[in-house]
Amino acid sequence: LVKLPGVGKKTAERLVVEMKDRLKGWGAGDLFTPFTDAAPADSGATSNNAEEEAISALLALGYKPTQASKVVSQIAKP
């Protein structure tokens, strides 16, 4: 998240804390373990929901819808 323009360490940490429960099951472990390519069994539905939540968070931070969608789709690529 800190790689996004305008998102610093504090904002990224706040987003992680606020979205922690919503992102459970999105990836192999919790948010504080390194990412792996493993995915949960229902990764399609969970991934789409998590992507929508991420876009909503970016919109709340003032990003334009096209910017938010583009960034989230780039991050969500397998």
Automatic annotation (TrEMBL):
This protein's GO CC annotations: Holliday junction helicase complex
Name recorded for this polypeptide: Holliday junction branch migration protein RuvA
Domain Holliday junction DNA helicase RuvA C-terminal: 50-77
Coiled coil (UniProt feature): none
One family name in Pfam for this protein: RuvA_C
GO MF annotation list: ATP binding; four-way junction helicase activity
A GO BP annotation: DNA repair
Organism: Vibrio vulnificus
